[in-house]
Amino acid sequence: MVTIEEASSAGDKATPGIVAALWPIARFLGSLVLSFVLILAIWWLFLLAFPDVGPIIGRTPADVFAFLFTDDGAARARGTIFDDLWITLADAGIGFVTGMIAAIVAAALFVVSRSAAQTFMPIAMLLRSVPLVAMTPIITLVVGRGVAVVAVMGGIVVFFPALVMIMTGLAGAPKQIGDVITVYGGGRWTTLRRSAIPSAVPALFSAAKVSVPGALIGATVAEWLGTNKGLGATLQQALPAAAYNELWASVLVITVSSIVLYAIVGIIETVVLARMGMELT
Which residues cross the membrane (predicted)? Predict the structure, then answer.
């Protein structure tokens, strides 16, 4: 049975790791805020540099803010866009989970079996070279226009970059630890579980951070060309309907959502690595 003193001691040991992670988290969030401000500045400068784009087509960040929060119909417009956003986030989550699980399984298989890597890795890279838009009609014909097309298209966008990063992390495990496991009778899968996977945690989080915006892109493309729901469908319908306020607002909402999700994964990464005693980069 754990005593109060033991629990207090365990809490004291965990506290430095969390405290040590606060400054990296603040620095990380600060860089994201600065990046977002830079995006807004580039957006504004682009419209100034190309006046032919607006004011009929182009919308400034201030115009989008007014459309979503201060105009007469702002509540209705905001409700419509955020309803579509939840659909897109759900679709992105499906694609993210599908792609990450497939990447983890494939990376583990390729690291353990060199023959499997030599056989299937070129095929994976060949498929990666085919534009997603070109594959969409085929994917839609095969799996239909429901959740399956979202999972496949989102998974494709997430899978390939995550696979390369996770494989690199697994292959970079300390060889000395693997040798010790082998000496004590452990096989390749034991080495993978005991050595490679813990060492690959930073690579796994890096893959997740890269994959979060990719999952949103995959979900948007799937909605645009496959399901006709969510913000992807909104973008598709807004352009021919000349609904430019809605178009630019949807783009901004997708961008902000990508940054927020990226920040969430980054914060989790910082805390986990600090608790594991790994160096934060």
Answer: 28-50, 92-113, 125-143, 149-171, 203-227, 247-274
CA distances from 171 to 38, 69, 117, 199 (A): 36, 50, 12, 9
* Tens-digit pLDDT profile for residues 130-185: 777 777 778 878 877 777 888 888 888 888 889 888 888 887 777 766 666 666 66
What CATH number did the domain enclosing 128 receive? 1.10.3720.10
Q: Which pairs from 237-244 meet CB under 8 Å and 24+ separation? A: 244/56, 244/57, 244/58, 244/59
In whole angstroms, what is the distance from residue 109 CA to residue 192 CA?
A: 10
Query: CA-CA distance, 159 to 214, in Å (whole number)?
Result: 10
Contacts of 259 (CB under 8 A, 6+ apart): 32, 35, 36
Name 133's Cβ contacts closer than 8 Å, sequence gap at least 6: 221, 225
**Whether the Cβ atoms of residue 166 and residue 196 lie closer than 8 Å to each other:** no
Structural domain contains residue 99: yes
Domain count, the chain: 1
Residue 123 placed within a domain: yes
DSSP-derived letter for residue 55 is T
Print the domain residue range for 95. 72-268
Question: Could you tell me the sign of the dihedral formed by the alpha carbons of 154, 157, 163, 168, in that order?
Answer: negative
Whether residue 42 is contained in a domain is answered as: no
Cα distance between residue 178 and residue 173, in whole Å: 8
Amino acid letter, 149: V
Least Cα distance to 89 among 204, 207, 217 occurs for: 217
Q: pTM for the complete prediction?
A: 0.80
Positions of the chain with pLDDT under 70:
1-21, 54-55, 176-189, 192-194, 277-281
Cβ 250 vs Cβ 235: under 8 Å: yes
| Contact (Cβ atoms closer than 8 angstroms) between residue 120 and residue 110 | yes
